[in-house]
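Before the break, one more example. Copy the sequence into your notebook; we will annotate it together after we see the structure.
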Amino acid sequence: LIGLFALLALVLATIGLYGVIAYAASARTREFAIRRALGSDRGAVARLVLRRGLLLTLTGLVFGAFVSWTAASTWRSLPIPDGPDLAVYAIVSTVLLAVGLLACAVPAWRSSSVDPITALRQE
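Here is what the structure looks like once it is written out:
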């Protein structure tokens, strides 16, 4: 039952992570259009989106691991036989990092391929 709840929490975290990063990138569409209109190439815009998204992902992973490790270490006083499992931390971090990369890649591709004139006229 605990494993099922943990899996559900991981699924919810991946959906939330994708949503936040995709929203953050789509909110900056006008900025990316201005950069492209001023002569920036597609790769530079894509790298900008990837860098920002990975920074958000890694910050969340570090903060979440710290809070989780602290909470798990306080549970040691309870009659639970095991402490924090490093394999679980590694698996969850890997999954969330992969989702973060995917969440960055899709908006990066979308924002780098937007036509500057069309994006500037929309708003």
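The mean pLDDT is 80. The CA atoms of residues 20 and 37 lie 26 Å apart. Try to locate both features in your own notes.
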